[in-house]
Amino acid sequence: MSPVFVEALLDGRRLEAATLIGAALPDAWPDAHDERFLHRRLGQMRRDPELQPWLARALVLREAGAVVGHAGFHGPPGVNGPAQPDAVEVGYTVFPPHRGKGLATEAVRALIAWARERGVHRLYASVGPGNEPSLAIVRKLGFVQTGEQWDEEDGRELVFELALD
Ligand SMILES: CC(C)(COP(=O)(O)OP(=O)(O)OC[C@H]1O[C@@H](n2cnc3c(N)ncnc32)[C@H](O)[C@@H]1OP(=O)(O)O)[C@@H](O)C(=O)NCCC(=O)NCCS
User: Fold this and answer.
1) Is the pTM of this model over 0.90?
2) Greatest CA span in the chain, whole angstroms?
3) Chain centroid to CA 163: how far?
4) What residue's CA is closest to ligand 1, atom 8?
5) Terminus-to-terminus CA distance in the chain, angstroms?
6) Region of 65 on the Ramachandran plot (φ > 0 left; ψ -120 to 50 alpha; else beta)
7) Using one digit for the tens of pLDDT, what is the confidence trace for 134-150?
8) What is the spatial distance between Cα 99 and Cα 84, in angstroms, rounded to a whole number?
9) Among candidate residues 97, 85, 91, 120, the one with its CA nearest the CA of residue 1
10) Pocket of ligand 1 from Cβ distances under 6 Å
11) C-alpha angle 58/136/125, rounded to 5°?
């Protein structure tokens, strides 16, 4: 998601945003949580436009011609909860009507492959202890729990790691 797209979305210029991304936008997006998330990512891209490939992608379901969620990294290698220099952290959301069809799993698999191609050695995922669908995804993809952390917004999180070597 480019800065121009995110700015249009946050400004409520929805037709322009939909044209820029080439897909319909769900009426409920962004909610307050995603507004804060998108502002954070926009700030990162404004400070350093070269970060864009390391940030959030929109998930577009071709058959629906619509944005069904988003997925990406928290930033380039080094930007992750445990602050490990060679690692990235994944994040993902699938909007409620499209859950339970394997879309998040497919998106995270694609992120892992993308990171591997760019020489990343380790990925992290921080998951709330009660977030059963997300726990199922990271475990299925081979992440192992290596710790815990406290997130200002989301509270207690289990930290999962996937070594790519
Ligand atoms: C987590 C989230 C991205 C999952 O999206 P999704 O597209 O429905 O995920 P998938 O269909 O790829 O996989 C979900 C898995 O959870 C499993 N699952 C769903 N509900 C479950 C439950 N209550 N208990 C155990 N497993 C559950 C599914 O069976 C599936 O596993 P499987 O493929 O092995 O059967 C989505 O629920 C979401 O956006 N939640 C809010 C944001 C969020 O929590 N993001 C993750 C932050 S770490």
Assistant:
1) yes
2) 44
3) 19
4) 99
5) 29
6) left
7) 999 999 999 999 999 99
8) 31
9) 91
10) 92-94, 99-105, 125, 127, 131-134, 136-137, 140
11) 55
